[in-house]
Amino acid sequence: MWAGCYEPELIAILRSILTPGMVVLDVGAHVGFFSVVAAALVGPKGMVCGFEPDPDNLRRIVTNTSGYGWVRLYATAVSDSNGEITFYKSPLNSESGWGTITKTDERRTSIQVAVTSLDEWRKSNGISRIDFVKLDIEGAEHRVLRGASLILQESRPMVFLEINEVCLFRDGKSAKDIIRLLRGYSYWIGYVVNRHDVPQAALAIPEEKKDVCDRIARTVSQVRTAESQDIAAILGVQ
After folding, report:
1. Is 50 exceeded by the pLDDT of residue 142?
2. For residues 194 and 55, what is the distance between their CA atoms, to the nearest angstrom?
3. What is the C-alpha R_g of the chain?
4. How far, in Å, are 32, 33, 43, 94 from residue 2 at the CA level?
5. How far apart are CA 238 and CA 231, in angstroms?
6. How much is the pTM?
7. Which terminal CB of the chain, N or C, has fewer other CB atoms within 10 Å?
8. For residue 229, what pLDDT band results from cuts at 50, 70 and 90?
9. Per-residue pLDDT for 230 more than 50?
């Protein structure tokens, strides 16, 4: 991460999209890597809100973001419900980013944590605008989007989310379900793929913001549409 080699596609997207004053949500903030990158880009006139239910990770985020007073941290999971939920911590001590609210067959330590929907969180905190949402929550992405219907309709943020079919399957969902949901809110969808041409993330942009696609296409080379559409028409990639 600190050598600048971690998920370069997302970093390129952040640098091409985020500008001073924007409001960014980092859902599944882990140790704060993307929160720090986003905070540096939006500056003190902007705001970054990081959500992380794992208390060990949260302690690290507090330290890692300490130089950015416009980062707000929330010790909560995000889903389509409010209250409490079971959180299953990473099964390996060497990998702290695999915690999830979706039940797995692995033997994991579980804890009870607070949970909120993004719509309820926005209402409770008086957030008037949201420009960009990053989701990486090990399979519960569809739940988060269901709980953010008002945000998707009213704030119209761009959304970058992990696509992991194995994790999504644990929640009875697939990438197609996520695409269908976002298309229902009039979003264009593009894939970011790895070197094996396998989708690893999706970028969703409101149709009325398609001009952003050209800027992204200049910095991200490996992008595919999530539907059988001409990639050039969506992200300007030749």
Report:
1. yes
2. 31
3. 17
4. 11, 8, 20, 17
5. 8
6. 0.83
7. C
8. very low
9. no
**φ, ψ dihedrals at 189, nearest 5°:** -125, 135
**Could you identify the residue written with the tokens 């970011």?**
192
Distance CA 175, CA 199 (A): 10
For residue 14, how far is the Cα from the chain centroid?
A: 12
CA triplet 98, 101, 103: central angle to 5 degrees? 90
Quickly tell me which residue has 């739940």 as its tokens.
143
Hey, what are 148's tokens?
Answer: 């953010």
Amino acid at 122: R
Q: What are phi and psi of 121, to 5 degrees?
A: -60, -45
Structure tokens at 201: 């993330």
Could you give the CA distance from residue 156 to residue 23 in angstroms, rounded to a whole number?
Answer: 12
Percent of the chain with pLDDT over 70: 78
For the CA atoms of 180, 185, 189, 192, the dihedral, rounded to the nearest 10 degrees, stands at -90
Cβ atoms within 10 Å of 174's Cβ, excluding its own: 14
Question: Helix 33-42 to helix 8-17 angle, to the nearest 10 degrees?
Answer: 20
The CATH architecture one would assign to domain 8-235 is: 3-Layer(aba) Sandwich (3.40)
| DSSP states of 151-210 | IIIII--EEEEE--HHHHHHTT--HHHHHHHHHTTTEEEEEEE-TTS-EEEEEEEEGGGT
